[in-house]
Amino acid sequence: MAKLSRILAWLTVAALGTLAVATIALHRGEQISAMWLVLAAACTYALGYRFYSKFISAKVLALDALRATPAERLENGRDFVPTNKWVVFGHHFAAIAGPGPLIGPVLAAQFGYLPGTLWILAGAVFGGCVQDFVILLFSVRRDGKCLTEMARDEIGRVGGFVAYVAVLSIIVILLGAGALIVVNALKSSPWGVFTIAMTIPIAVLMGFYVRRLRPGKVLESSVLGFILVILAILAGQRISQNATTAPWFTFGAPTLAILIIIYGYAASALPVWMLLAPRDYLSTFVKLGTIGLLAIGIIAWHPTLHMPPLTRFVDGTGPVFSGNVFPFAFITIACGAVSGFHSLISSGTTPKLIRRETEIRMVGYGAMMAESMVAIMATVAACVLQPGTYFAINSPAGIVGRTADTAVATISGWGFPVTADGMHALALAVGEQTLFNRTGGAPAFAVGMAQIFSNSLGGQAVMAIWYHFAIMFEALFILTVLDAGTRVGRFMVQDALGHLWKPLGRTSWYPSILGTSALIVGAWGYFLWQGVKDPLGGINSLWPLFGICNQLLATVALCVATTIIVKTHKARFASVTLAPLVWLIAVTFTASWHKIFDANPRIGFLAHARQLAAGAPSHEVSRLIFNDRLDAIVTGALVSLVTLILLESAWLWIRVASGSQKPVVSEVPFAITRFAEEQG
Amino acid sequence: MNPTAWLRNVVTLFVTCMREIFDESAYMRFLQQRRMRSSPEAYAEFSKDRAATMTRRPRCC
Q1: Which of residues 259-298 of A touch B (CB under 8 A)?
Q2: pTM score
Q3: Can you tell me the mean pLDDT for A621-640?
Q4: Is residue A139, in this structure, part of any structural domain at all?
Q5: pLDDT: which is higher, A135 or A28
Q6: Chain A contacts of B12, Cβ < 8 Å?
Q7: What is the CATH number of the domain that holds A453?
Q8: Total domain count for chain A?
Q9: In a domain, B14, yes or no
């Protein structure tokens, strides 16, 4: 009877999920409720977790409840700590959920809500969750080794080198793209600049509080920091409305870019406890709270989606970024569907906390499902906006024109009506001077989020507060990634340079710190500057480049996973990682080809360089041509490196499958767990 | 399980999770291991000990 009830319950979930997906996919010409997206996601994730992840656990990975994990065997109370599975889940989710699942879906909404939603659901269940899950297990079985070490041990030296280069490249391009999003969100916004500037002394104060006044009381200091940030938002409104103080905090994009570069360098070289650690805590606190609030807001308001399921821009002529729905929707949304960066976290801190192997399914597969849900919420936030408003905010001046009149004429001409008065009223409602040409995704997401929040709590009167809360949340988020990413990149460079000359590898030697920090900040600062000076808004070049890097890293991770599956005589189940791998190869290689060689200058780097070269020469034009060629070389080099790892892996699979090579895996030997008596 | 006990468990779990995410549990373990009492000096030592791990911890995009 109980079994029958369970079958009926799961059939109901499947029927509801099918109905929701069919409603999303088949409705044309009338608006649907955002709750259909939420329902489709909830049912898809429930089915994916219950059936697909269970199949992978039982048949492919053979999770062993009796096998001791490194957290137990190497327990040291520091890195290796057997931890409650829900706590590890929270820890892992806090590390994987960054600005990516919020920004990517907002940008991809230019195609309509359908392509992004379907990719987020299918990509997560069959790709992203699987990648995070298998890499986490394989790292646990190798004493918490990182992806680059696993690539070297299981595939070969080329694999290790490619993984290293891919990780470093993705960090640099991610930081450049992230910084550009912050610049675009804060330019000409004294309110936003003041709030974000205030987070620096607030973080320093938190550091002092937790180190001197109440040692170790991080949660307490985070609550205090959060209250101070809210006060800074409220004060920011006054500052922006005062004719004397507003100009002090009003900056153009180039000035903001320089300030962020200086900040990044200083944050990278300062002691951790002073800025990085408290800021990281504050950002995590705000992040977890805001994501929870957004979920409650969407359910409470259950808004209608104004964006159509598909827009005319699936043909590649979109103003937000150029390129057809295939492959560009699939590289624009990486985090939320499949993100290679997650493989670094699944093979970083998390494997050292896992108490029992059987808990890996919930942490690896489950946390990625939660992040995917965040991406669905971002899609909702973008699509509750009127399409005309969405395009007015997200389109660069180079496409729609520099004045409000030309922008509304162009956007209305596309079939998405918008008026200059309406945009002006919206800008006033959110406390900004203008919302035109605010590319990068963050302002559009903030407007959508402010609408959701103000409709659920406080009404239109507090829309400006919610908007600036959302901007603060995103900028704080990204600046934290910037702090941490610059340091991670710096350590990677120091590790490598240490092989050439030992003192360069010493992380406490100041000449090395200053030199390598300058190298990393200079690298992402260059991409940031390139984006700021780009007449097409920068995001058009940088975000696809970042998406390609991220997905190429996922390709490396899935190559490692497939190799281990083949070596452990499970080749018949290799399709679990091989299928998303093949899909990612198709997506990233096609996207790379278009970005380098497409004849359309809005898509292809080289075509754009040729177009510029045909015009009047100037110093500015020469610099833009150089940037285009550099972007093409970076893309080409990464694809070539990943091709090498693919060839090396495929050759290994063939030799192992044909029996001409004895498979050797570097798993640690089995040891029985002391938690064997526990259930589950 | 009665609702009150269930709710208490959920709150306990939530607090434990927050304490772990915000490194308060790590600090407690550090104090226990070193047999120290919480003080500015102990926290400074913990921060130094923790810095290497924390700064190498990747944060996703």
Answers
A1: 271-273, 276-277, 280-281, 284-285, 288
A2: 0.91
A3: 91
A4: yes
A5: A135
A6: none
A7: 1.20.1740
A8: 1
A9: yes
